[in-house]
Design brief:
Elements: H1 2-15, E1 26-33, E2 37-47, E3 53-64, E4 68-69, E5 76-83, E6 88-100, E7 111-114, E8 118-124, E9 132-133, E10 142-149, E11 155-162, E12 169-175, H2 186-189, E13 190-192, E14 196-198, E15 203-210, H3 212-217, E16 221-231, E17 240-251
Antiparallel strand pairs: 1-10, 2-3, 2-9, 3-6, 4-7, 5-6, 7-8, 8-17, 10-11, 11-15, 12-16, 13-15, 14-15, 16-17
Length: about 250
């Protein structure tokens, strides 16, 4: 009965959504900034005679009001400093007493933040020569989401990425009733195009197709995220090694 109900809901959305007869792209999220932006990152490092180091990082950044670190890390503290508006605030994150062995690279842990509908992770660069960074290339990144439905039960999504030196990508997960990932079966229900670019407005975009009705009929669950990342910005110079952003587009 539950599957039948879901199918009826999908059909209701497709045929009674008020969309024009000729399917058109409908804006789900206008092209605008992401909610995560860095203001400054500073660090303090102590080096032992053997070359091992301990590092302390202080990160000042903008994030959604409900953003929280995950999983919890005893070395990390997360504190709201001030409100920007009803959606975002300024936060201070302190990553304390991070041990860096002289014989091992990239041992600084990533910081993962989640606000429910999106996730943001970033990592500091252990070989940076700077003590403080205040200019961040990724702060200019914008993205938008468009959607188009067809009468065959399929849904099409378009991700638009603007002012950003990165590549937009869809990340899809298909699971059965036992919560097992179905890698081989995914291509039956989901496909995405190659990245395309528009020189006129400095944007990149990618589209995908999800067989929404077939997923519901098969009793499967499906999650679709949009993701992009910027890593190795001026490697060896910036304190920020890079970041990754993920936004949930669809969940069935």
């Amino acid at each position: 009965m539950e599957i039948v109900g879901k199918i009826e809901l999908v059909l209701l959305i497709i045929f009674n959504s008020g969309l024009p007869t000729k399917s058109q792209w409908i804006t789900e999220r206008p092209l605008q900034d992401i909610s995560y932006k860095f203001e400054s990152i500073s660090r303090y490092v102590e080096t032992s005679p053997g070359g091992d180091r301990k590092a302390w990082f202080t990160i000042m950044m903008q994030a959604p009001n409900n953003a929280e670190p995950r999983p919890s890390d005893p070395r990390l503290t997360w504190m709201r400093v001030s409100n920007v508006n009803s959606a975002v605030s300024f936060f201070q994150a302190n990553l304390n007493n991070t041990f860096i062995k002289a014989t091992k690279s990239y041992s600084i842990p990533k910081i993962w933040l989640s606000s429910g509908t999106d996730e943001f992770s970033f990592q500091m660069n252990e070989v940076s020569t700077q003590e403080t960074q205040t200019q961040f290339k990724g702060n200019s990144c914008q993205f938008g989401v468009e959607k188009k439905r067809s009468v065959d039960g399929k849904t099409h999504f378009k991700i638009i990425l603007g002012n950003c030196d990165s590549i937009p990508y869809f990340y899809a997960q298909l699971k059965n009733e036992n919560d097992k990932l179905l890698f081989r079966e995914l291509s039956t229900y989901f496909s995405q195009t190659e990245e395309m670019a528009s020189q006129a407005d400095n944007t990149k975009y990618r589209t995908c197709t999800v067989d929404t009705l077939a997923i519901v009929e098969a009793g499967l669950s499906f999650k679709l995220d949009f993701t992009f990342s910027i890593f190795n910005e001026n490697f060896g110079d910036d304190v920020l090694e890079g970041f990754m952003y993920m936004y949930n587009v669809l969940t069935i």
